[in-house]
Hints:
- By secondary structure, this protein is of the alpha+beta class.
- The protein has helices at about 1-10, 15-35, 80-100, 105-125, 170-175, 220-225, 235-245, 285-295, 305-330, 355-360; strands at about 125-130, 135, 135-140, 145-155, 160-165, 185-190, 200-205, 210-215, 335, 345.
- The strands form four sheets. Strands 4, 5, 6 and 7 form a four-stranded antiparallel β-sheet that branches. Strands 1-2 form a two-stranded antiparallel sheet. Strands 3-8 form a two-stranded antiparallel sheet.
- Strand 4 (about 145-155) and strand 5 form a beta hairpin.
- It is globular, with a radius of gyration of 23 Å.
- It starts with a helix and ends with a helix.
Amino acid sequence: MVILIEKLLEAHQVDQNYLNLLYPRLDRWCKWLLKSQKGNEPGSFRWRGREVEEDRLHPNTLASGLDDYPRATHPDESEYHVDMLCWAIAVTRAMGNLAKKIGRGPDSESYKMQSHTLTKALDRLHWDENTQSYYDVGRHSKGGSFQTRFMFRCSTTDGSTTRDVGVEGSILRQQKNPCPSSHPKALFPLGDGQGGILHREIFVPGPVEHQFVKEIGYVNLFPLLLRILAPSSPHLSALMTTIRDPQHLWSPYGILSLSKSSRFHERGNAPGDAPYWRGAIWIPINYLTVSALYYYAGVEGPYKGQAKALYDELRNNLIRNMFSEYKRTGYLWEQYNSKTGKGQRSHPFTGWSALIVSIMAERY
């Protein structure tokens, strides 16, 4: 929505009546977004709907669109998310420009002031000087371990309802009743279809503190992706360095969604729930990246050359890999493998993956 507004305003000929028709609806949507996702800390925002799920390795954040991307391990009202704040900055910036275009001066000034205030909050809330990156903040365990639990079916005393629970192997070996008080009747272990017991992985956290969630991935890049950073900002250079780091996000096929060094990299969230935003290459985020790099390479600033070199290399990698996969399979794919570049998941997928055509044409 934000990008569409900005594209409309960049058009050489725009129907003013159409913009006047759109504005009240967009204004309501913007105010709803800012109100509904507002965080507890002044200037902060958090995606709603995060909660602990017993059958998941890590809580999802579906509202963000980056479903299983690892956020704070212990979701609550005290957390705040850097990508949501960036969207708030971008939408208020776009609405300020739209209001100005149609002659709503007071609205324009109000939105621009809001965007300016939120931009200052970005560094105050999310920038870590020590690691030179932006992060989410929340109740989080940076330690912990992955452990195996075997699945056992339990029921209520009268057998009216059942519940599947994860059990430590030692409890099964000791033949103890593994069932909770709500479903105290032990039934049987679940089979895996191969002669064994179905099992799943869980994450057992270490000490929990309110702190930066130091995961490296798409979320860290949003201040660059949405062109929030000034061309002279040293934070811009730091994010470009992170993008180009082969220990984190760089690959010959495109930018990975989650760092290779992350404990959650390419790790599924539950049995049958393959990793989604935990390493795979997604074309819409890569599009935003090359689009932003194209912008920063075209404006004056100390990092213009760095942006241009990174732009050329990333663009070539994306085109080469997607063309190769199209020749091999005949399809555009929903996402591309972090290790091989091969297309995976849904296909044919000529929705956002078709953005490669805009990348080829350099029309951003």
